[in-house]
Write a structure and sequence with these properties.
The protein has about 260 residues and is of the alpha+beta class. The protein has 7 helices and 12 strands. Strand 10 and strand 11 form a beta hairpin. It is globular and about 55 Å long. It starts with 5 loop residues before the first helix and ends with a strand. The relative contact order is 0.16.
Length: about 260
């Protein structure tokens, strides 16, 4: 006779339920609800990491990514405001908004676990479908960082031609150290292993972008963010990509292009 424990039965039930779902649709609906609540309450956010890459490169989920979540970024200064929205998420049946400081429910059974993100919006208590929310904190003194701040500049040179009625203009790009930088930089400090920073004015105001047939928010300068997160060749699909593989100069703390 086969003896079934409560844990075995629960795991089987969760597996059956999970396989019965249209995972992309459920995740999109969860993000749609999150987007609406954040927009109504003036929480600024942007698609981030793999979700931003999917939006810009594929128009939605990365085809071979089988993890059902969407990554977004917010500013750490809005933490208290987001925490205050827990009841609205619950009342609207918009999943469960959980902060990293919350006590885990049903340890080892519930999916209500946050290791690095600031918040997660879970579809339910046991199904691994969620919105991952990273909070970006200001770097008080960027000039003190060991990673240099570099500013792209353009020099224009006029070359005379064989005639007296026209000239040819060419541009060359150089990089100089910016010692009077006025940008405010932020970093996802809960990922210390990922050495990149963003200028706030390259993230906000966020702009509308398409994702899976919906309209969400992307950074003001998406390519600037993608180059720092995935390297200068982010347009080339790589199924085995790992963040630690990026070592090119685009990880340097740059100011955004004009």
């Amino acid at each position: 006779m086969v003896m079934c424990t409560f844990g075995t039965v629960l795991t089987l039930a969760v597996t059956i339920h999970y396989r019965s779902l249209d995972l992309e649709l459920v995740t999109l609906d969860l993000m749609q609800c999150t987007h609406e609540i954040f927009t109504r309450n003036n929480v600024s956010y942007f698609l981030d990491y793999g979700s931003l890459l999917g939006a810009v490169r594929h128009g939605g989920f990365i085809p071979w990514d089988d993890q059902m979540d969407i990554d977004i970024g917010v500013l750490e200064s809005q933490t208290a405001l987001i925490i205050s929205l827990k009841k609205e998420f619950y009342d609207r049946r918009c999943g469960h908004l959980v902060h990293r400081s919350d006590v885990a429910y049903l340890p080892d059974i519930s999916s209500f676990v946050i290791r690095r993100a600031a918040f997660r919006v879970f579809y339910n208590r046991v199904t691994p479908i969620f919105i991952d929310i990273a909070d970006y904190e200001a770097i008080p003194n960027p000039s003190s960082l060991t990673t240099p701040i570099a500013t792209p500049t353009t020099t224009t040179t006029t070359l005379a031609t064989s005639t007296t009625t026209s000239s040819t203009t060419t541009s060359t790009s150089t990089t100089t150290t910016d010692t009077t930088n006025t940008h405010t930089f932020v970093k996802d400090l809960h990922h210390p292993d990922l050495q990149f920073y963003f200028a706030v004015d390259a993230l906000f105001p966020a702009r509308d972008c398409g994702f899976g047939g919906r309209t969400f928010k992307c950074p003001k300068r998406s390519e600037y963010v993608l180059e720092r997160e995935f390297g200068s060749d982010w347009r080339v699909p790589k199924k085995d990509f790992k963040p630690e593989d990026v070592t090119d100069a685009n990880r340097v703390l740059h100011t955004p292009p004009n």
